[in-house]
Amino acid sequence: xxxxxxxxxxxxxxxxxxxxxxxxxxVNKKELNATLQYPHEKxxxxxxxxxxxxxxxxxxxxxxxxxxxNCISCRRCERACPIHCIKIDAVKAPKDHExxxxxxGTDKKLLVARFDIDMxxxxxxxxxxxxxxxxxxxxxxxxxxxxxxIDYEFSKRDRNDLVFQFATASDEQVAEISAxxxxxxxxxxxxxxxxxxxxxxxxxxxxxDVKAADKxxxxxxxxxxxxxxxxxxxxxxxALSVIEDRVVRGLAKKTAMGAVRAGKQPVExxxxxxxxxxEAGKLTAAxxxxxxxxxxxxxxxxxxAATEKPVAETKAAKDTPEGExxxxxxxxxxxxxxxxxxKAILNRAKRQGGPxxxxxxxxxxxxxxxxxxxxxxxxxxxxxxx
Amino acid sequence: xxxxxxxLIKGLLDLGLVPGGSAALALVGAVIFxxxxxxxxxxxxxxxxxxxxxxxxxxxxxxxxxxxxxxxxFAGGKRFWGGIAQTVADALKLLxxxxxxxxxxxxxxxxxxxxxxxxxxxxxxxxxxxxxxxxISDFNIGIFxxxxxxSVGVIGIILSGWASNNKWSLYGAMRxxxxxxxxxxxxxxxxxxxxxxxxxxxxxxxxxWQETNRWFIIHSPFTVIAFLIFFLSGxxxxxxxxxxxxxxxxxxxxxxxxxxxxxxxxxxxxxxxxNVAVVSLMTAIVFLGGWLSPxxxxxxxxxxxxxxxxxxxxxxxxxxxxxxxxFLIFVMMWFRWTWPRMRVDQLMYTAWKVFIPFALVNIFLxxxxxxxxx
Lengths: 386, 374
Prior knowledge:
By secondary structure, chain A is mainly α.
């Protein structure tokens, strides 16, 4: 019986203890509440001390930011991006339009009509930032903390809001400059493309290749020409393919290739292969006959022009019809600054169709004004006049 | 004694709003009007009580609870009413949900079960006064009526559990049946003691007795015990923690409500909070002086004026009974967020071996007390 009452007593006292505890929490909610009300409250970004200076590492890649005022629209980032999440439209401004300079002092020649980065697609590889000549596209965070506050969340209500639009050029500006330059307004082209792609009734037009269209209506910007690989002499090495041992075959082909590149004759090539194989202890009688066949093969020499002529010269030669000024003559000038100035003056003369003599005179006066005129330049200019 | 129904019928007849002056038509009109009013009151009660419950539980667990959905300037974040529209939004969501009736259910029973539970809660509220004369229908056997009609709800619980054709639901329903049968007894016995002292089953008489004498909770040491037994058994009657075995969500998913969703589930919720209100109001009336002002007695000794200064009268009465009921609802929430759920055997032990013997002895001792001191 006493156990019964003790039981009830314990029950009441423990229940009361529990209620006291919850009451304490109920009245002290402000002090005891540890939850951060996230969208309304945010933790401060902690100071970072990981043992070495901040500028020497870049581990925070929070999001891409573009200082659009510094962008020269070279599109290197767009090309570097492995997933094509950067989309740039540029309009080449005509001569009389000044677009200003970047903070590095580079003249801006292209108007950035569109600079969109879809951060939903971005893979944070950071490759675009290495290519930028003006260092105007960079990952927010890390050593860039000085350039831009760390935006570590950039959460958005709508997926489409993750497409960050950096271009600041107004519609009027783009329209005006494209009209002046005589090229299609990239915005209009884009709109047209969207209309082509999405039919009014919501269905999709058939077989409209958006990517191809995207490429097609990029404004006319000169793409840098890919330099051709210097051609190499080639030799028919199919004779070696009958060798069964993979290691031996590989070694033989490698040696033969090296010898051909070194400009050796087929017989010498065969000798070199034999030497290499005997050194490796793999030479047998059967192999010797196979390699002997190699000596009969012919070596195809590449076109002499392709290897010997510098690329620029071929281009210039191609671009210069009869009676026109050949800018490549000026390439002989060693001083970079002098060469640049001279070329600029000559190029303008070429475009305006002015006389060469006047241009040469102008080059002379300009360069002498800069104190760059020397006998080498005089010689080249004389050649140009003659 | 006039009730709302009487006044409304009289008013309708006096104003000539009833065609032909028929008393029967006036009664129908009054019943429809008051029925809708009570339904709205129950819905409002559930909205506010759910919000209150969520806030109280949050604060007791060092959280903040709903604080994003607000309206009419109440979007106050961390303040208590910061998320008041949350329950409104939840209610709208529930009403907009698909009405799912599982294939293998007993369709008819499944559909009517929540309405039986709701009907019981609804009918119980009819008989409870919230002030002097502020009652829908003033029964002269009020206590008996409320206790009897609120027990009807268990039929709905058993029906819903059985009709769901689901093991969790059936377990929940069986537990509910055992639990409510067990806890009816201590409730009846603790009320019996009050009825014995007052000599009436009518709520108005009980409050009148407390007005002339003293509140029952301080009437004698035995009535304190009766109060505790009644209130705790009441918590068990409405299936709230620590007695929420019928729906114990950690073992039975949602007990007898497992298969319900949308509007029907909302009806269960309305009933639960209506029952909570009924138990709180009953406790307030029977043990805590009902609509009597707790400050009236004190102020009377200082003040010369009567009436307003005592904070008495029908509407102040409604205010005081609300304060008492809300306090008791808060205590129920306090229980819920403090105490762990009991085992089935502990539940039975508490009812049959603790509450019922104590209540029986109590009746005897109160009788002795009345003989000696009254």
